[in-house]
Amino acid sequence: MFLKDPKAISLLKKDHRTVDKLFAQYEAAKDNHEKVDLVQQICQSLMVHAHIEEKVFYPALRGKVKQNLLDEAFVEHDTLKDLISKIDGRGPEDAHFDAYVTVLREYVHHHVKEEERDIMPAAEASSLDMDEIGERLMLLKTRLEERISEMEPEADLRHVAVLQMDGRGIRHH
Ligand SMILES: [Fe+2]
Ligand SMILES: [Fe+2]
Predict the structure, then answer these.
(1) How far is the CA of 17 from the centre of ligand 2 (A)?
(2) CA angle, corner 169, sides to 151 and 108, nearest 5?
(3) 6-16, pLDDT tens digit by residue?
(4) Deepest in the core among 21, 58, 98, 100, taking most CB within 10 A?
(5) Tell me, what DSSP letter sits at residue 127?
(6) CA of 17 relative to ligand 1 center, distance in Å
(7) Residue range 73-119, pLDDT digits in tens
(8) Gap from CA of 73 to ligand 1 centroid (Å)
(9) How far is the CA of 113 from the centre of ligand 2 (A)?
(10) How far apart are CA 159 and CA 58, in angstroms?
């Protein structure tokens, strides 16, 4: 019998697939404007996704999933944000722009693989209500996206900084 993933898992996995697709589009892109637009979408999606995981998903799992897995995930998010902050403000004319995006893609791939292989199954096997956690993830995601959409378009990649207002785990650069 086919069982649908509970809400929290399906929402997070859907985000993962969306970012995969954006990275693939970036790789195929020829035009610099298109590249900048895609990188902006990638960075924004990753920042929102990392934020809702850090604020809602990971804390809910505390005590239910091995702590070292959660600790590693937090540290990996930090590294992801460092990479994003290095990409922020650069353009395709920068000699290392493509390299940064490629490294970000590889790193995201690694992180997502571990999350889906280790953390999510443990979360699903726990007594947690993953549908309720999914509702909270969705609520926060919607709120963050609304705030981003209210920002000036010329804020460019830097608009991800809006998320820094929420503090924890999101760092200034
Ligand atoms: Fe994550
Ligand atoms: Fe994730």
Answers:
(1) 10
(2) 85
(3) 999 999 999 99
(4) 58
(5) S
(6) 13
(7) 999 999 999 999 999 878 888 989 999 999 999 999 999 999 999 99
(8) 6
(9) 9
(10) 24
